[in-house]
Amino acid sequence: MTEQPIQQSKKTRLLMNVMSENGLILGLFALVSTGLTAVTYVLTKDKIAQEIERSLIRQLSELVPTNSYTNDVYQDCLIVQDKNLLGSAQEQKLYRMRNQQENHALMLTTVAPDGYSGKITLSVAVESSGKLLGINILSHNETPGLGDKIERTKSNWVHQFNNLSLSNTDETEWTVKKDGGQFDALTGATITPRAVIKSVFKSLQFLQSNQQQFFELPSDCYPIEVDKK
Fold first, then answer.
1. Rounded to 5 degrees, what angle do the CA atoms 101, 209, 78 make?
2. How many CB atoms within 10 Å of residue 195?
3. Is the pLDDT of residue 140 over 60?
4. How many C-beta atoms lie closer than 10 Å to residue 193's C-beta?
């Protein structure tokens, strides 16, 4: 055997060893990255959920005036689930507002799963008559300057829902004007408002079909401590 084939064989083995080591390093890096991502999610998911709830409660007075109910709404709530009407298989919170012995309003969290940049979490408040008191956007990833105008602080778009109900607004009206409905879209963003409108409509269906039961069931949620100011 000549010297040249031997040297080439050594070079080939060396190259293969280097490639194998690099592959192992990359594999370990990917494994560690995946593990860190999973750990981060586990450590932060409850914190994110609690922050959404705090945001919900801080914004409660924007939808339901505090002088319109007398109960401790932060302790008067239910856990509800409906993947079809509430947009997620996850549990949602439903808060009840009562004025003395009279049922006044319900407010729940719901999800629009088909926003332009993913799911949009919102709150929907409804009088016992079925009329919408309003909605608030709790979290989203919509495009800044376009889809994010669904936020109450960035435009008046959400005010279109005030005083609407399933009885005074036909089902065909629950979409943007471009699709034959009654709602204004957002300049440069149509997918986002479509998703929110559909979510609000389904939330009204959910609340209307179970309203009396929601007021009668005993509280079964575990509210967190929040600054109510």
1. 55
2. 25
3. yes
4. 27
